[in-house]
Amino acid sequence: MWRDDSAASLTLPVGGGKIRAAKGICRLLGSFSLQEAIESPVWPMVAFALGLIVGSFANVCIHRLPLRQSVVTPRSRCPHCGAAISARDNVPLLSYALLHGRCRFCRARISMRYPLVEAANGLLYLGVALVYGATLRTLVLMAFVTAMLVLSLIDVDHQILPNVITLPGIALGLAASLLLRVPSPSSAAIGAAGGYAALWLVNSVYRRARGREGLGQGDWKMTAMIGAFLGWEQVLLVVFIASLAGTAVGLVLIALRGGNGKSKLPLGTFLGLAGIVAVFVGDPVTTWYRALLHG
Question: pTM value?
Answer without folding.
Answer: 0.85
